[in-house]
Amino acid sequence: MEKMQYTNGEVTVVWQPKMCQHTGICARGLPAVFQPKERPWIKLGAADTLTIIDQVKKCPSGALSYFMNAEKTA
Prior knowledge:
Layout: E1 4-7, E2 11-15, H1 25-29, H2 49-56, E3 64-68, H3 69-73
Antiparallel strand pairs: 1-2, 2-3
């Protein structure tokens, strides 16, 4: 399991499990989206894109990152 990707059509969140420090900052900051006990554990439909991006940027390990789908396909 190198990288996992989750998308809402507008943004894709990339999770790199090997980098994750499991601090829980993502789940505490945006629990409707980041639900570690669920599968899939990232539910991007539960918040708007800007809120998701803001939370992903707070990941201390860099295990969570994102890209805008329009940029990736361009």
